[in-house]
Amino acid sequence: MRTLCLPADSASIAQAAQLLRAGEIVGFPTETVYGLGANALSDPAVRKIFAAKERPADNPLIVHIAALADMEPLCHINDMARRLAAAFWPGPLTMILPKKDIVPAVVTAGLDSVAIRMPSHPVARALIEACGLPIAAPSGNRSGRPSPTLAAHMLEDMDGRIPLILDGGACDVGVESTVVALTGDIATVLRPGGITPDMLAGVLGQVQVADSVMRPLKEGEAAPSPGMKHKHYAPRARMTLYEGTAEAVAARIRSEYDALPETERALILAASEHLPLYGNRRTADLGPDEASAAHRVFALLRQADDDRITRVFSETYPESGVGLAVMNRMARAAGFDIVQT
Question: What's the whole-model pTM score?
Answer without folding.
Answer: 0.94
